[in-house]
Automatic annotation (TrEMBL):
This is Cell division protein ZapA. It comes from the Bacteria. InterPro entries: Cell_div_ZapA-like, Cell_div_ZapA-like_sf, Cell_div_ZapA_N.
Amino acid sequence: MAQVTVRVGGYSHPVACQDGQERHLTNMAAEVDRRIGTLKAMGMQFGETRMLLLAALQLADETADLQAEIAALKAGGAVAAPAPAPAAPDPELVERLNGVAEAIETIAAALERA
């Protein structure tokens, strides 16, 4: 069992993998790190756990889309054209979403204290 230290979101994480899979693991970690960098560039200001969650949700969404396309191809159906690339984020919208997220976190923290 190989041991690789990957850097994601500015933090180092030791991760075990099968021998010979080190490069694959490093590439996957780089993809997660790229997504976290994109979220940060959009103005997202969350802790490590929240950023990892958002990146994981993005990856899970893409995986579900790809699985649906594969199932459609296996069934002999047509596959919808891929969605166009998203437009550049609206800074005002990002700021408003950050405000909503902070309000939700404040409410969640108050509920946990209660």
